[in-house]
Amino acid sequence: MKSFLALLLAAATLAAQEPIRGFPQTQWAAERELEQKAIAFPQASRQKIYLERMARVPHHAGSPASAAVAEYALGLFKEFGLEARIEHFEAMLPYPTTRTLEMVSPVKFRATLKEPAVAGDSYSSDVTQLPTYNAYSGSGDVTAPLVYVNYGVPEDYDALAKQGIDVKGKIVIARYGKSWRGTKPKVAAERGAVGCLIYSDPRDDGYFQGDVYPKGPMRPPDGVQRGSVMDMPLYVGDPLSPGWASEKGSKRLAISEAKSLMTIPVMPISYADATPLLQNLAGPVAPEAWRGALGFTYHIGPGPATAHFTLDFDNSTRPLHDVIAMIPGSTYPDEWVVYGNHHDGWVNGAHDPLSGAVALLETARALSELRKQGWQPKRTIVLALWDGEEFGLLGSTEWVEKHQDELSRKAVVYINSDTNSKGTIGASGSHTLERFMSEVLRDLKDPESGKSLLETTRTRRRQGETPPEEPQIPGFHLGALGAGSDYVAFIDHIGIASLNLGFGGQNLGGVYHSIYDDPAWFEKFADPGFTYGVAFSQVTATTLLRLANAPVLPFEFGEFGNTVNRYVEEIRKLAGTKVDFKAVQAQLAKTELGAKAYEAALAGAMSRPDAAGLEKANRVLYESERALILNKGLPGRDWYRHHIYAPGMYTGYGAKTLPGIREAVEGSRWEEANREAQDVARVLESLNQRIEEATKALAER
Prior knowledge:
701 residues, alpha/beta, Aminopeptidase, Glucose Oxidase, domain 1, 7-stranded mixed beta sheet
């Protein structure tokens, strides 16, 4: 027993000696003591209460129920003793008025287009559920032969063309997966299709993966994935106000002018409704990689299955309600650390988004408890629950567009979360925060294994559980940010360093955006006991405390430079000698040297209690991400201004790194690729100037 206690004491002593980036060694112990207090506050029982209250009824954006959820969250923030308010915006939020789908030949079939209630799950029978549909679809009444297009991405259409199959004038049917849903109708329209159906194949999202709900977590035969098909790679937010906040009385584009709206009708369907349509296709047998798990031979068509479907929408402008709480900073009140999660759901939204929202609420309560004990952050902490995320990141984008000048001056980092469930921690974000985030995960434990969260992320990578698009590079690395959640306006539009965090991956639940994403499903399959909800509150509380309290903000530039170098090498393999990277490589060489000089200056400043340039250095540091944007934006989409990260034009959620160069190379647009390489060199030069400024500021006495 004595030896065991000695080992524990030694381990605790060793942990106390681990550095905390941005803090001098004399402050490590006090900071860790504060963090230990904070992570003891979050309670599973409270998260359960919040979730069951907020997910009690469907609360899609624009509905009275969404407003009620916002008011409930506002009341909690105020109950915790925080300054809080609701900021109101509005946006075009289409609800369907007409939906029909039938097969008119060679046999008659009418799709149900409805998810049935499940015995034992009272939530699933609520009459206020939004129907199954895709927001921002085109309206239409179309009849045409069907063509099966696999996942409906550009390479699938290229494969069809090689077989002499043309989708012009046809209705395509694609399965969910491989790309964001909005890519599928976008590509279909570009190839001449007149309509698009998207279904969930059980190979990807159903019984092939495990038992279906209610026996298991997977999507049942009649389950449907709702979702927006806004062309988010062009811009996000209200389609009628790109670049400015949509508030009562503000200017609006005409619907015909909104470039982010789909031009053809698109409808999501279940695999039960898809089965007879696919069964009645002839033509070539689908390649093996195109075959799903339905019990018949997959054919491509065209026809003889001919479908008829009609869609129309009420495109009214409806309200959005963002809930904003603030904890004022004591030393640097005009430096803001912002943390947000959305509160609107497609239906009840227990997993997406309330699993993340309730963790945020418990983090807020933990910080408020510290305040009652006399703590105050040095920097202001802003906590936000966004509305309208599901339609196209509406609430967060309108808020950023309204406050962009203030945010450009004040925002240090934006931390985003969305869904949370049992599994490993996922972390993506600005590579300048990579070392900082690795230290946070190093100092927190997985609630089941007891290992550090940093070790669990490394184990995940060793076991091959990272997505195939992520390179298998040794060590911990933040993934690049694409699109798909509320960080987009912060990083891509105004250049605020951002993180996207959350546990998940252990349970391949298949009720995403369906009526079955409710507390009954969540508490049985996603996070029983809210164990990982508590763990996530501990992660975000620690992250906020360090960012808010650090004498020197914990940015680091060596890993950033190394990562961008890897991106350059990836593109060089595609481009050969057709793109001149000399200017980019010259700037990256300066980044490497500048990062080393900065680290030496930081070490010196951390050893001196009289360092004079900390405030100046911090401002330069948090503005360093601003250096990576250019006001002219990316080619063909000037709303996106970040030249290191952006969602791909045909990947949607997935990131394209060095997007201007990479996408020009992929399209063999060599002049454009060389122009974009010069722009990347420009932003890297601007970043290097800021690294040099921060280094000089830290050397001041």
